[in-house]
Structure formats: C-alpha cells, structure tokens
Specification:
The chain is built from ten helices and four strands, in the order E-E-E-E-H-H-H-H-H-H-H-H-H-H. By secondary structure, it is mainly alpha-helical. Strands 1-2 form a two-stranded antiparallel sheet. The relative contact order is 0.09.
Length: about 240
C-alpha cells in the first residue's frame, strides 16, 4: 500500500508548484512528492519546502518511499532513534536511577566524541545507552553484576530492544558486539567501540571525582593510560579542570 500523501491519485491542483532557490533566488519547480530538486540557475540542491517529512522521521520504509533522504531528515531520524533507545533503557531499568543516570552520562560523552572520531552516532549512542543493560539479568541469574556477567547477559537484552525498534540487522549485530565486550577492547578496535569504551571510562571517573573517590592526578593518569582516543583524552582533561 502506497502512503496516501505520496500517491498521485490523491493529489490536487497544487501538486506542482514553484519554490525560490535560497542561494540565487531563482524559481525551482517541484512535484509535491520530490524531496529536492537542483536549481537550473546555480545548481544548488533545493529542499522541497512543502513536503512534510514527519512520518519519515520514524518510518523504517522512509528510504523506499522518499528515495534519497536529505541530510536534515537523516539527522532527524538519528535523533529520534537515539531518543527511542533511551526511553527503552529507562523503561527496562525502571527505578534504578543510578544506572539510568550513568547510561545517560555515557551517551552524553559518546555523542561529543563520536563526531570528532568519525564514528556512527546511531551505533555509538545505542551501545552507550545499552552498554550496562545486562546488569538486571546478571543479578537475577548470578546475584552479581560483575562486568563480565553484564557482557554475557547484555547482548540478548539489547537485541530484543533494538529488534523491537526495527533497527537494521547489521546495526543490531555491531551494537551487541560492543556490549558483549565493552570492558575488554581488542588491540585493533573500530572507532565505534573506542568511543563507547572511552565514554564509559569518562562517566565512571566523573562520578568518582564528584564523590572524592579518586584524585585529579589519578584521574589524569587513568585517562593517559586507558583512553583509546585523543578526543576522549581532551574531554577528560577539560572535565578534570572543571570539577
């Protein structure tokens, strides 16, 4: 079934219209279902000003319906998916506000580092929000939430959450791989893994610094020895100075 908003059978007289190119001021003719057209005057790609991309922001068939999505919509889809993962994480942890807060802090650091390290935000942020998701099952089965037990139980829970959000299989596989060993990096790691790993260290250290459980000098030494990215080291130095 074709989306009624994009089906020509439901179009009216205003299905073809002109828009103004924001770069040169020339006229650009649009069919209502076109996401963008190239201005004949200057070559600028003009976004359809009348198209409502609201449904595409959450629809898993958006690419099939609209074709190549504009960068603005891709960013909107990423932001919406990130928010949906965060909501599922909060629902899963329920009243465990400590873990919810920690996961949010890890995601906050990851969002900053991912841009500078050319990592993939949807994968990085999903893994950041869900990195400790195995703690609940670990406590149920082993009465312990030790890191290796979280890594063991986490992927299955994360997979169920991401499948429920209609994430792509390759994304689910990579997120679950990160979660399954997020405390144990290999020698040659992906940028996505490094961002999540470093963000977890930054969040844990920030929490310890605020509770005076670690000194600033020890935190700096930890960052120097353990962090995998230069972006995280810079962020760590700034964090230590600000506390």
């Amino acid at each position: 079934m074709k989306c009624p908003g994009q089906d020509p059978r439901y179009w009216k007289f205003d299905a073809i219209f002109e828009a103004t190119c924001p770069k040169c001021g020339g006229a650009v003719e649009f069919f209502k279902d076109e996401t963008r057209r190239r201005c004949k005057g200057c070559g600028h790609q003009v976004l359809n000003p009348k198209m409502d991309f609201g449904c595409a922001a959450h629809c898993k068939f958006a690419e099939q319906c609209f074709g190549d999505l504009p960068p603005e919509l891709i960013k909107q889809k990423e932001d919406l998916f990130k928010d949906r993962v965060a909501v599922q994480m909060k629902l899963y942890f329920r009243n465990d506000f400590k873990r919810i807060g920690h996961s949010a802090r890890v995601a906050g650091f990851a969002e900053k580092i991912a841009v500078k390290e050319n990592a993939a935000p949807p994968i990085v942020l999903s893994a950041a929000y869900l990195h400790d998701i195995g703690a609940v099952e670990a406590m149920k089965k082993y009465n312990s939430d030790a890191p290796e037990l979280q890594e063991k139980e986490g992927p299955a829970v994360a997979r169920e959450i991401l499948e429920g959000l209609d994430a792509k299989q390759e994304m689910i596989d990579e997120v679950c791989d990160i979660i399954s060993r997020h405390h144990h990096p290999n020698e040659d790691e992906t940028a996505n893994f490094k961002v999540v790993y470093d963000s977890d260290i930054l969040a844990n250290t920030q929490e310890k610094l605020k509770k005076a459980q670690i000194s600033r000098d020890d935190a700096k030494l930890l960052f120097k020895k353990s962090l995998l990215t230069d972006s995280a080291r810079t962020l760590g130095e700034e964090m230590v100075q600000s506390l």
